[in-house]
Amino acid sequence: MPIELILQTIVNSIQLSSFYALLAIGLSLVFGVAGIANLAHGEFYMLGAYAVWWFNTLSGMGYITAVLLAILFVGLLGIVIEKLIFKPLRGNVLSVAIISVGLLFIFQVLVGQIWGLGFPKRVDDPIGGSLNLFGVFLGYQRMVILAASILLLVLLWLLLHRTKIGRAIRASAEDSEAAALQGISANVTAAVAMGIGSALTGAAGALMAPISAVHPYMGHTPLLIALIVVIVGGAGNLKGTILTAVLLGFLFTIITTFTDAVTANIASVLFMVVLLAVKPGGLVQNEK
Amino acid sequence: MKNNKVIAVAGLVAVGVFLILLPFVLSRYYIDLSVVFLLNVIMAVSFRLISTTGDFSLAHVPLMGMGAYASAVMTKKLGLPFFLALPLSGITAMMVGLMMLYPLIRMKEFAFFIGSYAIGEALRLSWVRLDIFGGHRGISSIPSPKLIIPGLVSIDFYEIIPYYFLVALITIVCLLCMYLIDRSRMTEIFHAIHAEPELVKSVGYNITSYRIVAFEIGTFFAGISGALVAHHMGHIDPHQFELTTGLYLLIWVVVGGYATFWGPIIGVTFFAVVGEWMRIFGAWMPFVYGIILIVSLLFLPEGIESLPKRIAQFFKKETTIQQAAG
Amino acid sequence: MSNLKLNKLRKEFGGLVAVNDIDLEIEAGEIRGLIGPNGSGKTTLFNLISGFMPPTAGSVLWGGKDITGKPAHKIVREGITRTFQLTKLLKEMTALQNVIIGCYRQSGTGIFQQFLPSRAKNQMDDGVNEKALDLLRLIGIENVKDELAGSLPHGYQRALNIAVALATEPRFLLLDEPTTGMNPVETERLMKIIKKLRDDKGITLFLVEHDMKAVMTNCDKITVMSFGVKIAEGTPKEVGSNEEVIEAYLGR
Q1: Which of residues 108-147 of B touch C (CB under 8 A)?
Q2: A-B interface: how many C-beta pairs under 8 angstroms?
Q3: Do A270 and B118 touch (CB under 8 A)?
Q4: What is the mean pLDDT of residues A240-267?
Q5: Could you tell me if B16 lies within 8 Å of chain A, comparing CB atoms?
Q6: Where are the domains of chain A?
């Protein structure tokens, strides 16, 4: 086994893990804090990518500006959707999941019809190319994603542990009933969690835009990944989510390197089934 | 009491007459649509049957596909007659369903919902992988059903009108079975399991067994419907049984209402009509579905079937206010 | 001789010990009270006995038979039934219908009997309707038989819970705070019914209760728990004058 292959696999795994973490943390947050099983999660990712395309490729703004605007846009969208659509059904996880299916269809078709279903959109790399270190290929954009993911996750940690609203959110994630009794407004924590969660998901989409095929259905696989990570890592559990993302990043990279994408797909769904069957917490809001 | 029975029988007769006359007044296109409609009704009602215990299964459509593939293989590759393959398809679906339940039944509510998607998708991907199911392209040239009793009858259901009658008859039989089950004690227990599982456990019922039975009954009818789909189109492939189809099924049932036996039928009918109106906007269909679903869940959460009740309540309130105002 | 015996029964939740090596023995026909401050593990103990939770260690013996860790529905078939602290009823169904559902199982074992259509027809055929009505009469709430369970006043709901439990023809009843929300008149009436269940039907009763007067006057023996541990056991008089018990209740 050539050393370059091992190193490359490790590098790819780390990069994939950072992406998975950023992708899943949003869903983990809203599910753990407000019991929102947003099955349109993948569409928020997709909208992040389209937003960057809109601001950068179509409107000519700088890449960084476009990413920041995309994050803002998706975050705000998340809050609006929480207030209008999820709030009335809050409390019933399955109902929220079902109504989010409606959102899934709406976003996919809207985006597809407005901007076409033809070739995927292109967003140019801000820093094109890659670095070749000891025979290992380090794409610049992927390194940007890694750095940005770490930065965003650190910011999230600071928010959750150093601010008042962050503490309220963590209390809700741990025990939503107790938090409510303590006077922490469920409305506020849900909206904030949804805002932050959506923003982070949009960030994932925005960062991946230059290196992925930007099309209306690009959110399907991200949703699956996010679900698996939330099942294993535990909803609302920041550490668990990141740990799982790392594990999964390595697992998927290795499987894809040595087999193919279809096998990876089958493996991922079977993995999900086994996890749900074996893990007593499964997809439960507050794991005891 | 007796009046209700008279009305029910009269209703059934009316429906029967309607179904019999239908193919003689409609164009070929609409007869075809009617066949699809009837098969969707079987799917929706059987989906709802499973959901009475609280299990919303996204594996329902994949299991329908299993029935379709089973019938296709049995008739085309094993040469079995359709009328033998049909019940066997239902049973095949049940057997695969039982295997799925091994991990799936450990999950509840939302986890069951996601898990059922995952395991259904694994089944669907297996059709892509295994040669006997024809991979991505699926199975074509599925033989049409034939009823041959030597010396008595020889019917080939290849043409649309005979096939329509076959499907209509089978649908009536399936719905009748599911209706009787809906009125049984067992279904009362299904509902109780959904409402208060701890209570049901505390009076000695094995909840898992009941959930399995509900799932298997629903799956049998999904298999039947699948077999009828296979012989209708003459061709099946894995893409017909994708997640999107299952989500549409979910939306029919949720929008129509799932409190009673009739809700899903109302849902399928509603979307059949909407689908035809919106046919020109083809690509926008999922969008329309999404809007209807959201509006429905926010403003009419118990589904279209609760509309008469809601209207009655509204008018009662109005008259009370009027009376109070004097 | 049907009696209940617990040997070093233990339940841990992660680091927390909710039930700490409890030894207990209840004679057939006894009315045993279980008291203790909130959070002392009383409901958890009930959950362990009735199969709603598997124990971490220890055993449960019923009439000499080991029933440890059996699932809830199997324990019911052994003759042990429990009610819940929070009222659990089918709120959209009538009081009578709630009890009837409890009766189906007795009147025909096996899931296939359940294909029988419900409502009018079969209730007449196998006496399920009558049996349910008798149970409502026994508890004294037959006058609300056609009311929706969800619309009944709290005290009636608690009583209905017991009627439903009785549908399973238990030899041993675990009642979790049966008198919560009842006024003194209703409590007195319920205690009389409980005594009748023991006297007339020979049912053994194990009650978790917070109403001290009810417990002291109606129970043969009382077990006291605090923080998962049994701290006292004996006749009401013995327990009432026990130092530790008094401290457990006052020292909170």
Answers
A1: none
A2: 109
A3: yes
A4: 82
A5: no
A6: 21-218
Q: Tokens 């270190």 map to which residue? A: A133
Chain C residues lying within 8 Å of B184, measured CB to CB: 114-118
pLDDT of residue A145 exceeding 80, the answer is yes
- Tell me the pLDDT tens digit for each residue of C6-52: 999 999 988 889 999 999 999 999 999 999 888 888 999 999 999 99
What is the pTM for the complete model shown? Answer: 0.90
> DSSP label at A281?
S
Selected from 3.40.50.1000, 3.90.1720.10, 3.40.50.300, 3.30.200.20, the CATH number assigned to the domain covering C1-79+172-252 reads 3.40.50.300
Q: What is the largest CA-CA distance in chain B?
A: 79
Residue C131 contacts by C-beta under 8 Å, 6 or more apart in sequence? C103, C106, C107, C167
B201–C72: do the CB atoms touch at under 8 Å? Answer: yes
Tens digit of pLDDT for each residue in B193-217?
999 999 999 999 999 999 999 999 9
Residue of C nearest to B178 (CA): C115
Give the residue from B28, B45, B99, B12 showing the smallest Cα distance to B225. B45
CB-count exposure of residue C169 (10 Å: 0-12, 13-18, 19+): middle
Q: In chain B, whose CA is at the least distance from the CA of C116? A: B184
Average pLDDT over residues A30-45: 92
Domain co-membership, B170 together with B71: yes
* B109–chain A Cβ distance below 8 A for any pair: yes
- Residue C180 structure tokens: 């919560």
Tally helices (H) and strands (E) across chain B: 13, 2
Task: Quote ipTM for the complex.
Answer: 0.89
